[in-house]
From TrEMBL:
Native organism taxonomy: Bacteria, Bacillati, Cyanobacteriota, Cyanophyceae, Oscillatoriophycideae
Principal location class: membrane
GO terms classed as biological process: photosynthetic electron transport chain
Descriptive protein name: Chlorophyll a/b binding light-harvesting protein
One annotated GO molecular function: chlorophyll binding
Gene Ontology cellular component list: photosystem; plasma membrane-derived thylakoid membrane
Protein localization: Cellular thylakoid membrane
Amino acid sequence: MQTLGNYEQKLILLPHLATLGIGIEAGVQTIDTYPYYVIGMLHLISSAVLGAGGIYHAVLGPKQLDEKGFGYDWEDGNKMTTILGIHLVLLGVGASLLVIKATVLGGIYDPLIEQVRLIQPNLDPVRIFGYLFGFSPNGWTITGMASVDNLEDVVGGHVWVSLLCTVGGLFHIISKPTGWAKQILIWSGEAYLSYSLGALAIAGFSVAVFISTNETVYPSVFYSPIGSDSVRTALATVHAGLGFLALLGHLWHAYRARAATRKVFYGTFFDFMAKNVTPITPA
């Protein structure tokens, strides 16, 4: 056993598990580290499998997958919306797993009482969606969703996220792109990359705001009090920096995707190297 309830230990990953109530046996002081070991090993094995798959497809795999198998045409809108739908359903499943953990499987850590408890989610749509427009129970605030100050609203929000993602995902799986979507959106691999980077940028900035202002989702006992020069500041800065890099990537790849529609192609880094680097031949 050891104590992990002290932010002075400068941890950023294990506190996330602690807030989920994993390993906590009494309050916030006594920790069973074995669940952390299991979770770490699962991530290590998964990363090895993903890394091996990446190396295979980059070095040994075919340059283009057979469209009759796992391959597809980037301009096939029907296929792209199906893939989008699958991702949305998976996001919905992820949100629902948190809800199940909070409501049934042991609960999550509540900093207001410094205990792990089961949560009864608040499903009031006016209150939950009001956060999106900056309306919190204490009045309007510029921090929006990051102003949430109770776990009932946090878990209730995840219920709505799970429902909307699942329904939206199923809709995109069974439907085809509408006329306006075909006209406005760019249907290419680089365009999809830019869309994804834009979403990551929003996520990075949103998390940075949460870390900087919210002590319900990011309890002070794990991440230090708000305003202190500690791990909370570093964690928020990293997320904001990654969000900014993702935003730059979004703008760059969006520009390249739009240029490609005008038949202007910039190629890749490897194309540039092949054109501008003279190979060294032995004397």
